[in-house]
Amino acid sequence: MSADILAQPRSTAWLAGANPLSKLGAGVLITVVLLLTVDWVSAVAALALELCLLPLAGLGARMLLLRGWPILIAAAVGGYGTALLAPKTGNVLLVLGPVLFTTGSVESGIAIALRGLAIALPGVIVLASTDPTDLADALAQRLRLPHRFVLGALAGMRLVGLLVAEWQTLGMARRARGVGVNTGVAGRVAASLGQAMALLVQAIRRASRLAVTMEAKGFGAGPRTWARESVFSRRDAAVAAGGLVICAVAVGAAVVLGTWNPVFG
Questions:
Q1: Looking at the structure, do residues 181 and 245 belong to the same domain, yes or no?
Q2: I want to staple 104 with a disulfide (CB 3.0 to 4.6 A). Which of 90, 166, 196, 207 is the partner?
Q3: Other CB atoms within 10 A of residue 110 CB
Q4: Domain containing 194: what range?
Q5: Do 120 and 178 fall within a single domain?
Q6: Could you tell me the pTM of the whole model?
Q7: In this structure, what are the phi and psi dihedrals at residue 100, rounded to the nearest 5 degrees?
Q8: Cα 210 to Cα 226: distance, rounded to the nearest angstrom
Q9: Is the alpha carbon torsion for 259, 254, 24, 143 positive or negative?
Q10: Tens of pLDDT along 112-152?
């Protein structure tokens, strides 16, 4: 396994220099606060401030869409389902047989969709600005998690990109041999299952080689040392303060405008 394949370029974004635990802590705090209420004002306030942080994470609009399109689809589906099933209050907006939308149900759907986006976006920012090795160092050194679990998870994260590349390579090789081409939907499904099995076999073989390599290098044979020390800095204090500001602005805006709707109220 080539190190060039597994190595990913380090981000030069401002948030990339912060400790992963501070970013995770800020994201968890925002998530907990947004889960306490279902209203569109707090969601919009949090989402607007989170979008302002995208340049600090090295994310542009195009990259955000490429990485976050599943979140957009999930938010739209959740909002539609809520609008469809929520209590029908307010004026009637649309009636299509058994389907009924009112102003109250649509507002609930919009609130759920925006809330989902505001909760998911910090995760996208954290993933985009965090090197897996830095995260593993922080989890093992600061949170004292078992190094076997941490390093195993790190190896898995490093191999995800390689699995995606291999899936594409397998697909091109099978198409070159005429497998799954012009065979209808059933044939393509069968070809995809065969391709998935081939990928699984390669993944198991690679895992076996990796385990043998780690064993040969003495993994777990003695006290664990770390090449880089995970430390906290003033930048981490700024990240934590930013998370608090987002939470305070979101809650304050909802309370002032009278839309605060606590889940457990």
A1: no
A2: 90
A3: 16
A4: 146-216
A5: no
A6: 0.79
A7: -135, 130
A8: 19
A9: negative
A10: 999 999 999 999 999 889 988 899 999 999 998 888 888 87
